[in-house]
Amino acid sequence: MKYINYDYDNRKMIQRDWLALDRTLLAYERTHLAYLRTIISFLVAALTFSNVLSGWKKIMVPLILAVSAVYFLVLDLRMLKRMHDRTKHICIKPNGSAL
User: Fold this and answer.
1) C-alpha to C-alpha distance for 79 and 59, rounded to whole angstroms
2) What is the pLDDT of residues 61-71, one digit of tens each?
3) How far apart are CA 63 and CA 29, in angstroms?
4) What DSSP line would sit under the chain, residue for residue?
5) How far, in Å, are 59, 66, 80, 81, 96 from residue 39 at the CA level?
6) Is residue 61 within 8 Å of 45, Cβ to Cβ?
7) What is the pLDDT of residues 22-77, one digit of tens each?
8) Are 15 and 52 in contact (CB under 8 A)?
């Protein structure tokens, strides 16, 4: 796997670099929201199936869905940590310009 060096010197970044960074951050945000929608959907499905099904299915199906939701939560948290680690060194003034 090829790794990208994310050591930017924000004093040398030009407009193109800032726009690329904005696109990357927006893509991370969109992915994060997709993970949250998936987690909520799995949890709602687990609650629904626990009320509808009977017998051993009443326990197993919601349990599998809940474990899947936790798995997606872990993936989401790893992605957020990666995003934070890659962009924490880039400082932006409140007016939007680089420090």
Assistant:
1) 30
2) 999 999 999 99
3) 28
4) -PPPP----TTT--HHHHHHHHHHHHHHHHHHHHHHHHHHHHHHHHHHHHHH--TTHHHHHHHHHHHHHHHHHHHHHHHHHHHHHHHTT--B-TTS-B-
5) 19, 9, 15, 18, 33
6) no
7) 888 888 889 999 999 999 999 999 999 999 988 888 899 999 999 999 999 999 99
8) no
| Residues in the chain, overall count | 99
Strand partners for 92 = 98
Q: Match 């872990």 to its residue by tokens.
A: 74
pTM of the complete model: 0.71
The angle formed by the CA atoms of residues 28, 71 and 41, to the nearest 5 degrees, is 75
